[in-house]
Amino acid sequence: MKIAFLIDSLRFGGAQKCSIDLYNALTEIGYDITFITYRNDKKFKYKSKIKNKIIYIPGLSKKYFFDYVDRFLAKFFGRLYGYLASFFYAYVLQKKIKINEYDAVFLISDSGFFPFHNIRHSNLFFIAHSHKSSQYLSNNTTKHLNRWIMKRVFKHKRIVSITHEISDDLKKEFGVGAEQLTIIPNIIDFEEINALSKETNDHNLDEKFKYIAHLGRHSKEKRIEDLIHSFSNVLRIDNELRLILIGEGPETNNLKKLIKRIGISDKVILTGFQQNPYPILKKVKLLVLCSEREGLPTVLIEALSLETDVISSNFLSGPYEIFRQNLDKYVFEIGDLKEMSRLIFLNTREKSLLDKQLVMDVKLRYSKETVTERYKEILNDK
Length: 382
Known about the structure:
Helix content: 40-55%
Order of helices and strands: EHEEHHEHEHHEHEHEHEHEHEHEHHEHHH
Shape: globular
Distance between the termini: 12 Å
Largest sheet: 7 strands, parallel
């Protein structure tokens, strides 16, 4: 069976990484998959060889002057411009790619779905990686127009939602029917993560300290400044703690200034982007995720698989899927620095014990075998 995965690029990002993992798992069992991308961004160095067709879509590809004019218009006129332009984008795509040569087409995340939602194919799926109402309906000025647009976009589409909460949001806010939705989580390649965690890393962590980590892009919605403040609070009680921030992004310089201003520069390590963060993730005592929104936060699952403790903010989609009935033990409300500090302290004590049953549970739920079976079902390929 020939399948197309359509997304903006194979840059390093959450949706991209999850899609590569799905690509690898499905190709292992015989599917012939090709990524179709419209931007030639710097690629993350994936170990597997990936079939990738890069096409130029005027307005989307960020290659020529016109493409940047298109970006300006999209910012100025918002979702309405993107909706109207999507008819043109889909037309160009179908002129450049014989889309019906593929037995199934997956439009991955918003960068694959919104520009190409109206392409004509009998076996078309949208993979929803994020909570849509928090993206489209948070602005009171535009939310009514955006809801009207997205209801039209989602109408009659078959949608794979990676969490129950994303699915419920689509039904409640955008009128998506239950018959349109299938819930299949992201695939996690636990064998590869374990193998990568054994590789050497430039950051040798001093064993006399207990490390707290954040792994992810340095952007506003990650609220990493909350973690820095909470870490500073707990540091007054336990001076053996150290904070390690794995990643980079538009907020990196602001985070450096904050760390310097509160006087903990010697207690914080900023690693920058890491091609392989797993050796660090395996050695730290605790991973903290403090975002205001995520899709399915795979970094929590990856850390648990390496037997690293985790805590998380209670954003709209993800924590309940992972922790189920144990929210009080692992979750704090967004921006609640006092509760985050308390959970950091509790989970970095020497006597804190990892929940082995939770680790076994997530390894089963997000395994290659479990998730690929679900995709075979929706592709009618049992």
